């Protein structure tokens, strides 16, 4: 089957041919006609099978007819990460170059000014992450009442990131008569419930059994001690014919430390994780795509949907906590019919995680026996030359016993000192004269009566002159009024 057999327009077929594609993938062959017929769709396909083009191509033909309005996008594509949103935007630019379509990209990590201006000019396609979309909607910068086509991409990743409540909220703002397309590599119960709620009689397309890995990828698990993972990774990078590789870690701190370690040992590596701002992440991805670096250490922010050609190996430095992430991680290799190799390092603490992965994929990952021949984390110091054995010293001869000492001569007794002359006794002082007794003081007179207080003008206070009967508190004014008057 060719793309010309799917009902696409001539202008779109020219763009597809210019991109180097002639035959559609299975997901594209089944999804494109249904989308052109304006049917709701559930697409379950492995990552790397071309499902992005399966909704981008028919959307371009559908949106080629119509008029755009300010602040009211005609279609909406929801993506879980900024990188995926940017990748979908690249697909629209590549395939829609022969059509007059405007597109806006709403993602976090960049300023809102340019995004708001693009919305005011009117857009045909709005590609957004749920967080930034809801932020602009609450600010009144966007209206969703004119959106007739909704695409929910990587729905299972949306579930892992906690975006399902936001998606449900967004769906309530859209017209009820819209067309909805949902794509996912796995179909957990919450996603099935979401599809039942917001899709109307959808067509279900399963290119492969959910949560299965690409058959073009050779998968291995390596049992290794946690402290020897770096040595094993360096050994595989040197000996397994690696051209380009992606190394996935569970923690952002591990990403930074591992990238520093690889660079210290002479590898051309870079890193990408959630703590980096968007321009830095884009720059690092571009370096990897351009071949300036051939090893990219990443967290799961890069595990979903990134289409980087020529990745020969994927290394799971940490066994993923979520089994679904395993399918998406190894899907970075073996894309578009190419072959790839995926190694998962399993420490003793990862036993449960790898069991969950095998239960999800319903397959047993073969064990890879690896021998670590590389050096340790720190270069070994040169061995110092062994010390020459010095001749042992002869034991010292015993000293002869000391001869008996002659007794010391007795010292002559000291001469007795002459007694000191007796001092003359001091003269006795005359006794002091006795002081005359004090005259008896006259007894104190009776305590004088307190003088009445005077006000500032010097006149006595009338409240103090009246007989209060021993009362020393405030006197109410009504006591001065006589009842006989």
Structure, described:
There is one protein chain. The protein is of the alpha/beta class and 485 residues long. Helix content is 31%, strand content 12%. It has helices at residues 10-18, 26-36, 51-63, 82-95, 112-121, 130-138, 155-160, 164-173, 189-198, 229-239, 252-264, 278-290, 323-330, 351-361, 462-465; strands spanning 41-44, 75-78, 103-106, 125-128, 149-152, 179-184, 203-206, 217-223, 245-248, 269-272, 295-298, 313-316, 340-346. It has a 7-stranded parallel sheet. A 6-stranded parallel sheet has the order 8-13-12-9-11-10, with helices on both faces. The longest helix is centred in the first third of the chain and has 14 residues, at 82-95. It starts with 9 loop residues before the first helix and ends in a 20-residue tail after the last helix.
Whole-angstrom Rg = 47 Å
Give the termini separation.
126 Å
Residue-averaged pLDDT, rounded?
A: 83
CATH hierarchy: architecture of the largest domain: 3-Layer(aba) Sandwich
| Major sheet strand order | 3-4-2-5-6-1-7
Shape: flat
- Please count the helical segments: 15
Low-pLDDT residue intervals, each spanning 5 or more residues: 374-386
CATH class of the largest domain: Alpha Beta
Count up the domains: 2
Class of secondary structure makeup: alpha/beta
The string of secondary-structure elements, in order, is HHEHEHEHEHEHHEHEEHEHEHEEHEHH
Helical percentage: 25-40%
Quote the CATH topology of the largest domain: Rossmann fold
Family: Belongs to the DEAD box helicase family.
GO molecular function, one term: helicase activity
Motif (Q motif): 1-29
Protein name: DEAD/DEAH box helicase
């Amino acid at each position: 089957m060719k793309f010309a057999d799917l009902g696409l327009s001539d202008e779109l077929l020219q763009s597809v041919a210019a991109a180097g594609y002639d035959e559609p993938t299975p997901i594209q062959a089944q999804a494109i006609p249904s989308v052109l017929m304006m049917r709701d769709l559930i697409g379950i396909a492995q990552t790397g099978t071309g499902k992005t083009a399966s909704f981008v191509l028919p959307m371009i033909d559908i949106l080629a007819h119509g008029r755009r309005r300010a602040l009211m996008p005609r279609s909406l594509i929801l993506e879980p990460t900024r990188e995926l949103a940017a990748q979908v935007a690249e697909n629209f630019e590549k395939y829609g170059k022969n059509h007059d379509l405007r597109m806006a990209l709403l993602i976090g990590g960049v300023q809102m000014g340019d995004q708001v201006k693009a919305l005011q000019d009117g857009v045909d396609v709005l590609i957004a992450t749920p967080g930034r979309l809801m932020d602009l909607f609450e600010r009144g910068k966007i209206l969703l009442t004119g959106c007739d086509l909704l695409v929910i991409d990587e729905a299972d990743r949306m579930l892992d990131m906690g975006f399902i409540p936001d998606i449900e909220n967004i769906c309530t703002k859209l017209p009820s008569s819209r067309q909805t397309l949902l794509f996912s590599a796995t179909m957990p119960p919450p996603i099935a419930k979401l599809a039942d709620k917001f899709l109307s009689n959808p067509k279900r397309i399963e290119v492969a059994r959910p949560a299965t890995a690409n058959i073009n990828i050779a998968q291995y698990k390596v049992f290794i001690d946690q402290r020897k993972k770096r040595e094993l990774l360096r050994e595989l990078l040197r000996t397994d014919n690696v051209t380009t590789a992606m190394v996935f870690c569970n923690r952002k701190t591990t990403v930074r430390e591992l990238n520093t370690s690889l660079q210290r040992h002479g590898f051309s590596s870079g890193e990408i994780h959630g703590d980096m701002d968007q321009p830095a992440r884009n720059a690092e991805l571009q370096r990897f795509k351009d071949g300036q670096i051939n090893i990219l250490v990443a967290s799961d922010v890069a595990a979903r949907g990134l289409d980087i050609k020529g990745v020969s190996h994927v290394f799971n430095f940490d066994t993923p906590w979520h089994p679904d992430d395993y399918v998406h991680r190894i899907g970075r290799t073996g894309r578009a019919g190419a072959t790839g190799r995926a190694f998962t390092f399993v420490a003793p603490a990862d036993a449960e995680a790898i069991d969950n992965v095998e239960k999800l994929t319903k397959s047993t990952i073969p064990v890879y026996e690896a021998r670590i021949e590389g050096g340790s984390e720190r270069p070994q110091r040169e061995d110092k030359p062994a010390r020459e054995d010095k001749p042992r010293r002869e034991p010292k001869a015993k000293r002869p016993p000391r001869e008996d000492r002659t007794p010391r001569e007795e010292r002559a007794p000291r001469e007795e000192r002459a007694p000191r002359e007796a001092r003359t006794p001091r003269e006795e002082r005359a006794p002091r004269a006795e002081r005359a007794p004090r005259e008896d003081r006259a007894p104190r007179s009776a305590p004088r009566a307190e003088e009445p207080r005077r006000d500032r003008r010097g006149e006595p206070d009338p409240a103090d002159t009246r007989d209060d009967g021993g009362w020393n508190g405030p006197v109410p004014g009504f006591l001065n009024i006589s009842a006989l008057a």
